[in-house]
């Protein structure tokens, strides 16, 4: 009979520890798969260069491929054929910079839309503002998709010598089922198209 209070105390202690551990259980946030990432996925693009009058200066081809996956800090990442390390994350579609040992957002999730990154170079400072549409928008004249998410990148460049500021706009159209369908680069401080990446073919799993 003398052992019963001690047993009760130990039981209550274990019960409180169990309840405390339940309270501390990690909540896994859902991840939006902005880009289809599997080893072997591949996209081929036609690249068009335009002059300021809208005439085509040159055409070329560009291929993007997921070549392998890897673990970084117990997290799976995918390596592209250009060396970029990417994954779908709660913050969006992100890439890993080896030099900084940090991840940077390429396509933001809805909650991260409006994020900006600043980069210091010897002769200029570059700010890149990342935004996205809340819903799907039309993709004109695309044989692959009528609608997609639109990601907009505002690139502000300030020259240190003159303090002059120029802005370049980039728009990318992406679907989770296909990937990046089109990218449009515009001339600085202009709405004139400078370069376009147009999806020609793709293979996704």
From TrEMBL:
Keywords per UniProt: Signal
Highest taxon of the lineage: Bacteria
Signal peptide: 1-21
UniProt name for this protein: DKNYY family protein
Source species: Pontibacter virosus
